[in-house]
Specification:
About 65% of the residues lie in helices and about 0% in strands. It has about 90 residues and is an all-alpha fold. Helix 2 crosses helix 5 and helix 3 packs across helix 4. It is globular. The termini are close together. It binds zinc ion. Zinc ion binds next to helix 2 and helix 5.
């Protein structure tokens, strides 16, 4: 997993969402390890493109990805968030 300096600073800070952010990203690491890099990336991009081709806009296609839903479940399992961060345009 790669964290940008800004993301690493966020995780290491006392920000309440830092641990939840990490839970989300670590779920992607598990997904990656489950099937290997090529299969994971192919599945991720393939599912995204399939949703776009079916008419979904970027934010919706991203949010509905099975990989993102699984990661969000892990994030939310750590507790209720302030719900101020809209990750719909994120890339991770
Ligand atoms: Zn994600």
């Amino acid at each position: 997993m790669f964290l940008s300096p800004a993301a690493a600073a966020f995780v290491l800070s006392d920000a309440p969402d830092g641990a939840r952010f990490l839970a989300h990203e670590l779920t992607h690491v598990r997904q990656y390890r489950r099937s290997g890099a090529a299969v994971f990336l192919g599945s991720y991009v393939g599912e995204y493109l399939g949703r776009r081709l079916a008419g979904a806009r970027h934010a919706q296609a991203y949010r509905d990805l099975s990989f993102e839903r699984e990661a969000e479940e892990a994030r939310l399992a750590l507790g209720k968030t302030s719900d101020v961060d809209d990750r719909s345009t994120g890339s991770g």
